[in-house]
Amino acid sequence: MDPNQLADGLIQYLMLIALLTFHEFGHAWTAWKCGDDTAKSLGRVSLNPIVHIDPIGTIVLPLLMIFLPASYNQFLVGWAKPVPVNPDNLRNKKFDDILVTMAGPGMNLILAIGLIALSKVALIFHSVQAAQLFFDAARLSLRLCFFNLIPIPPLDGSQVMRVVTGMTWEAYMRFSQFGIIGVIVVLQIPQVKQAVTSATDGTLELLCRIFGVV
Fold first, then answer.
1. Helix axis angle, 3-33 relative to 93-124, nearest 10°?
2. pLDDT tens across 105-164, in order?
């Protein structure tokens, strides 16, 4: 593998770890504020990446993508260990359940906005490399945002589907047993990648226009 490609991949991986940490922190913090302290009691309301690491979604799959040919590693994604939530503790059970679920993708969107703003500041100070770094991190954050909306466990979209359809926890847990296999299969479907990429690029372009980032 080209050393430059490897270095770029590892930088992307470090970005991924940071973004996934904030993503799960968003879930845990929102659940805590909505009345459920399950995640807090387990130390998940934290920006320590170690408490959020999932062996497959945070380590194995992303690193495989980095070491695969360039045509594959352009779509670096992953997930962290799902935050435990007890819906019975939430003050407004159905609304708060969706709010907690969407807090992760919402955190990624907020981070992308902040990163594009930092990219603009870097350009003002003629630091093109820093601007590019912030831009790449914003793009990855948006990709994680839209990737997590796919309705397959352990992704957040499956939790929204559970609440909207009224699926029982028992049925959802049975469905979840095959979730990781489903995610891996879905990642092989070009239309899914294209949909996530289109949503990512469209939102990124909008943010760049708002902040005047070229």
1. 140
2. 999 999 999 999 999 999 999 999 999 999 999 999 999 999 999 999 989 999 999 988
> Domain map of the chain by residue range?
3-211
Supply angle C-alpha 134, 131, 79, rounded to 5. Answer: 15
Residue 87 has pLDDT above 60, yes or no: yes
How far apart CA 116 and CA 212 sit, in angstroms, is 9
- 């092989």: which residue's tokens? 188
Residue 97, token pair as written in the block: 């359940």
The residues carrying an active-site annotation are: 24
Angle at CA of residue 61, ends 191 and 158, nearest 5°: 55
- Residue that has been written with the tokens 């990219």 in this structure: 119
The total of other beta-carbon atoms located within 10 Å of residue 3's CB is 7
Contacts of 129 (CB under 8 A, 6+ apart): none
Contact 159, 175 (CB under 8 A): no
pTM, whole model, 2 decimals? 0.92
| Cβ count within 10 A of residue 70 | 11
**pLDDT band, very low/low/confident/very high, at 5 (cuts 50, 70, 90):** confident
Task: Report which of residues 9 and 27 the model is more confident about.
Answer: 27
